[in-house]
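Input for the complex:
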Amino acid sequence: MHEDRVSLFPKIVTILVLIFLVAPLVVIILASFSPTVLVVFPPKGFSLKWYANIFTSSTNFLSGLGNSLKVAIVATLIDIVLGVAAALSVTRYTFKGKHLLIAFFTSPMYVPSIAFAFVLLRVFSMIGGVPAYLRILLGHSIIIIPYIIRNTIAVLAGYNWLLEDAAASLSANPLQTFTKVTLPLIKPGIMAGALLSFLYSFDEAVLGSLLSSPRFITLPIRIMNYMEFSFDPTLAAISTLLIVMSLTSIVLMERLIGLDMFLK
Amino acid sequence: MSKKRNFFFLSFPTTFALLVLFVAPMVYILINTLEQDGIANFVKFLTDSFYLNILKTTVIISLKTTGILLLLGYPTAYFLARTTSKLKNTMMIIILFPFLVSAVVRSYGWMVILGNKGLLNQFLLAVGLIENPLKIMYTSHAVIVGLVHLLLPYMILSITGVIQGIDKNLEYAASSLGCNPLKTFFKVLLPLSTPGIISGCTLVFTLSMTAYVTPRLLGGANFRMMSTMVFQEVNVNFNWGLASAISYILMFVILLFLVVFNLATASINQRVGGQKHA
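Predicted:
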């Protein structure tokens, strides 16, 4: 009984925190079905017209969605290759300067996005003629690398390297060893890291703000621009779709490797 | 030995990409800024009270946010680490889930709630607690609410991991030796979880210093933090020299705070270590 009393305070705070965390998301989902422009509670009916608005009117949300997907998918694919290779190079053996190299790989995490975005803007404007898609893609490829590398290092920390020696002793060549033994075992962890990085890039709005051009604008920037002119529940409808996407991702991650990876 | 070298090769593409696209631009633009206008823009920022106030606002907002996050995050992290509830996974999902939702979307949610005609004001007016709508949107309060919401998962996760690693028996031992819960907390739990607290605070402080979307959307046009100021200098005032100066000053201030945090950690560790020997 004594222990139960002790944990009452943390329990109450936890419940309040959980409510606080979901409140704006629940509000958005409810608002997306609002029949009126001003969101009121309790709602005065039910309407899907804001969802129709995403597809029919000139919100440009769909082109923004396409652009964001193009950037996020390609940046994630590039970084899986770069990041997993880099993580393998620093985890297999211990060597002098290993921590320094890891610090170097994760250094983009410690630089404010706005500063990096601005620096890229200046460099690209000096070079000239670099299309917005490439500018944002290169920028995102740099800022999500630390997340893939850290995640893969964490996955590899739990990997039994003796398995590679076993494969080698059974006369597998290094490439076979990697593709048949190592990769299948670390794949779920890498997939989860890739999913996180994909979402990071997909939601990123700082590099997107400074490096986009009128012809190439990503979805978060489209949404922010829309807000400046109108504040109707079309915003809630597109936000709800993004919330559903995130919820699907987290359930997927839980299935893939469990959620303990976030506690490291 | 040769195998080692083969593996080391794998890091070259990433090293190359970071050098060309990250390190070189960051250094080059700093040199370029200094070559073009010397330190004029840095001096302008550091002597003009308008700009200094923006830096001050940014630091104060970030410190307040960090404090609130610690007060909310620690008990939650403790509960998550110690609970045996079957709902733990569901709670983890609820905590992680906003983490994966765009800052734009989350700020929008708060705009619907906190706006002048927002749900909170509708509710308070209906209940009769207030007669005129509260002005919360486009104030520092709205920005702090948004930042706390944005960064709570980081704080909770940083601390939960550390508390999970503290043997529950230590708490039992303290209470069987006559410590009340408060004393157990201050003498056992707090010292042992300090690493998690420090890493959590460092992380959320840095992230709120550099946050851009939340202050832009919830603070509005007249609320300025360092990152929104960079954007304004670039897109509104077209003063790239000053934008450069603000970017590098922001980085320098963050670095300064990280050094102070690290020194504090070192001294705390020493004190905790000292107590153990006493």
